[in-house]
Amino acid sequence: AGLYLRLILEHQLNVDQILVVTYTRAATQELRDRLRKKLSDERKLILTEQPGRTQDLKRLDLAIQSFDEAAIYTIHSFCQQVLKDFAFESGSPFEMDLIGDDRELLLAVTDDFWRKNVVQSDSEFSAYLLAKKQTPETLLQSIRPLVAKPYLQIQALPEVDTHAAKALASQSFEHIKQLWQQHRDDYIAMLNNRKILSGKKYRADWVKSWVQMLEDLLTETDLPSGVFEQFDRFTMARLQEALVDGQELPHAEFWQACQDFHQHFSDYQNQYALALQALRLELLGFIREQLPQQKIQQQVQSYDDLLINLSQALQGPQGEWLVTRLREQFKAALIDEFQDTDPVQYDIFRRV
What we know:
The chain is mainly alpha-helical. The protein is built from 15 helices and five strands.
């Protein structure tokens, strides 16, 4: 408020020549009230105590009378005003409705993407998405914070090969099924042998439960969609941790086969997790391409668009002209607060 007063009195600026930016609408209104009060307080001071300051009194009268024209904005309303005032030069459509929330539009674009890329994908990937409770809504939610950040550089994902990973996991699964059928009783007896395995780590009631889950798993004709959490109790690594001192692990072929399957199944699941990440990035690219077209067709723009469109206009072919006009319009800028961690917002002010 002190700086604002000095700009009016010492620099002879009018209220519409001083750009004032803060973050929220509430803060804008509060700042507007505070600045007006500062001008009024100074005017009262001159009238009561310093009558010789006639020039300052005239400047203050003018400022107070024209205060409705004061350029006090949130960053979004500043961008909106510039795009409106210089629509032709900024390449901005003349008539655009501002929508506070573009979620419905985003969801419509995502639904379109889902129909083209998920409904028509292979049934196994669809089943994986179903198991992971993925819907158009959850897919959109996962990339929503990235949509309004055109400056982000997307790192390429590793190549996805679910078929090769599945083939290895299926082969391992068939191997442990065969071994289990041949020597089932021997394996169970060893798991319950307290001379070989620690009773603390392989209690009889636990072993009974794990074996039942293993048997249920091995009744599957094809590669299962999931593996129970305690399956690793049948792997070579976990069993060796539980060996009684001085003992060797019998039936190593089966426990190693379980460990191989555990690893191959994990790799297979990771390939699908990568495929899901790839799908998210595809959606992000699709939205970046389709959403602006949809908004132009419907003649709407969001708050994020205001920032992006002004930033692009300032960097575009008419950018230098636009910067010159803004500098002519505003002789001073007081930026109280804005989201300076956002490169788009920061670039706008730095450029001007």
